[in-house]
Design goal:
This protein is an alpha+beta fold. About 40% of the residues lie in helices and about 15% in strands.
Length: about 250
């Protein structure tokens, strides 16, 4: 279990795929928060954490393994952590790649916030406690990545902003941290439901930043893109995503 947790922590916090790894020579040092603890105070407290605590590899390893981060005692009653991925529309990634440092920071912030909204919604509305009832709180770690795979690359990869949200545990009715129910997290409609809410939140934040949104994109017509990004760039990013997923 600890070996698996170590692998997942290294994958989540891999420096070569973080947005900070793609700073340009003219950019100031990137001080953005690309990984953070998320959830309710009670659920994070069970792991010995508070909202806003720094994210460290050792802390992520312990939490994913269901252990308190400082004392390493097991605090999650059962189950495992699950990686729920939220991918920003390809046009957002290309705008991020071409943006100045202020715009990049804004886009990183709202993509992370959209993923956070997805997790919060799923915990509150899906029966993640034993497949019977929603969670009363949750603990998760969110990690923002800027490309689909780490180096070495045969050629420069297209930007691909996405968040790995490791849902570590949910609180049951008596305040015990439990592993989220496996069946519910693999139920067919979950990604559509959570993804739709996250995309809606992201689109609203993009409009607040002054962008024009083109709705109804993607194979199922449920997506959106930022207006003005050339279709050829979007196809390049889509191909890279499919290759990384395969």
């Amino acid at each position: 279990m600890l070996d698996l947790a170590r692998y997942e922590a290294e994958r989540a916090l891999e420096p070569s795929v973080s947005p900070a790894a793609f700073a340009r020579p003219q950019d100031p040092p990137n001080s953005g928060e690309h990984a953070r603890w998320s959830g309710s105070a009670a659920a994070l407290g069970a792991l010995g954490l508070r909202p806003g605590d720094p994210v460290t590899p050792d802390g992520v390893i312990a939490a994913i393994a269901g252990r308190q981060v400082s004392r390493r005692v097991r605090v999650r009653a059962d189950g495992h952590a699950y990686d729920l991925a939220f991918r920003a529309p390809d046009s957002v990634s290309w705008v991020w790649a071409q943006g100045d440092p202020v715009l990049r920071a804004d886009l990183e912030r709202i993509v992370l916030a959209a993923a956070d909204r997805c997790v919060d919604h799923l915990v509150r509305t899906r029966p993640l406690v034993d497949g019977v009832e929603p969670g009363r709180g949750y603990a998760a770690v969110l990690a923002l990545h800027a490309v689909g795979t780490p180096p070495p690359w045969t050629e420069p990869p297209p930007p691909l902003l996405h968040v790995h949200a490791y849902l570590i545990g949910v609180l049951d009715g008596v305040g015990t941290l439990r592993g989220p129910h496996y069946g519910e997290l693999h139920e067919e409609t979950l990604t559509r439901e959570g993804g739709a809410l996250g995309r809606a939140a992201l689109a609203a934040d993009l409009r607040n930043l002054g962008f024009t949104i083109t709705p109804g994109t993607g194979p199922d017509g449920r997506g959106f893109e930022v207006a003005g990004v050339p279709p050829a760039l979007l196809e390049t990013a889509g191909s890279a995503y499919r290759a990384a997923r395969d």
